[in-house]
Amino acid sequence: MPIAYPACFFQEDAGYSVVFPDLGYLATCSDSLTGAFSAAVDCLAGYLHAAQRDGEQVPPPSHLRAMDPARIARELGAEPSESFVHMVTVDAEDYACIHFKKSI
Predict the structure, then answer these.
(1) Does domain 3-99 have CATH number 3.40.50.300?
(2) What are the boundaries of each domain within the chain?
(3) What is the reported pTM?
């Protein structure tokens, strides 16, 4: 079943950083925007897969409008930069079957 979390995308000198505030500021990065979108899906899927595997509760996603990238940048001790918020969606079970579970 697909699940979506809001992620803050920050443009930086060397590419983009992506932060999931709802998930303890889980973060990833890439040198391009396309790569950042892909890395965000990988990051979210890995987090959800590990939480399910370990029996951990996952916090509910915030509403997209609740995200303020400038505030989040300041909370992380960074200067606000060019940024936007985007919902990242993944079906963690399908993703895990393809990327995490190996047949022997």
Answers:
(1) no
(2) 3-99
(3) 0.88
